[in-house]
């Protein structure tokens, strides 16, 4: 289906965001349209990002209903607005809410990555409300202007609850003005919002102003993973890493690790690997072992070097950097390592 919203390809009007009194050039419409990779600049040192992320739907385990809902909503907003009547509000203002580390930010990034023809503008609400700006209103207005000019677009407000909080250190009043202008722009958004999906996240929805909560036409709860998703996540994050977990071990982890988030699972694997690296990097003695290399877990070789105590038979005083990387033995991750960390 052809896109209804075309970018102004002939315009050479440049976009500027006024931040801290400086003017940030974010590309003319022409160069923007010609850039097939849509690699734009990062504006304001990471506060506003117009680069497409590189996160795929397949990187997100579970959450199938939320994925489908987001895909459908974006499609309706960007491709089929004509089927909506004046009485039906498009699902173009979506709030993802749920516990920490449940995958809310990931969902927004994957939606942006997978919808290739859509511009993605991401704002860190925490950063934008804790940074001093000389002309805060202008910044926010330009942000919305940019989103409108480059539609079809997704405006992503991560951790939107920051826009609802008072900053006790805001002596200049800049934060207050940013928040006020955001609220104004959001509440006026419907007047010219064709082709734009405004997506926001929060893990503390109860702190949001009632008007703002109601303003979101769709609120999607993003839960902690269930048992099946937990098993899949452990498997996904263990990946090719050398480990000794059987299918039954994975099932046990999935069953017993209730109330853990996707973030807990990914960071548990990372933490175990970090500990293992600390053992190897801190060792003063190594011994030769018959084992599987990290990179070829199904092969067994007899020339790997494992850290060991100095009095171990065959111990050689040495340092991990004395061995080629592929000759170092990394102890496989075990069930108890993960149980211990979580
Ligand atoms: N469904 C999932 N599939 C795969 N990994 C996940 C999933 N959910 C969370 N993770 C892991 O947890 C990390 C954090 O996820 P994300 O930032 O999306 O959480 P969040 O819901 O936005 O949390 P917060 O409320 O704290 O901002 C991800 O980088 C990823 O490693
Ligand atoms: Mg998040």
From TrEMBL:
Gene Ontology annotations of biological process type: endosomal transport; vacuole organization
Domain AAA+ ATPase: 90-226
Molecular functions per Gene Ontology: ATP binding; ATP hydrolysis activity
Database matches in InterPro entries: AAA+_ATPase, ATPase_AAA_core, MT-severing_AAA_ATPase, P-loop_NTPase, Spast_Vps4_C
Coiled-coil intervals, chain numbering: none
Pfam families according to UniProt: AAA (PF00004), Vps4_C (PF09336)
Keyword vocabulary terms for this entry: ATP-binding, Nucleotide-binding
Residues annotated as signal peptide: none
Sequence similarity: Belongs to the AAA ATPase family.
Protein name per Swiss-Prot or TrEMBL: AAA+ ATPase domain-containing protein
Organism: Timema poppense (Walking stick)
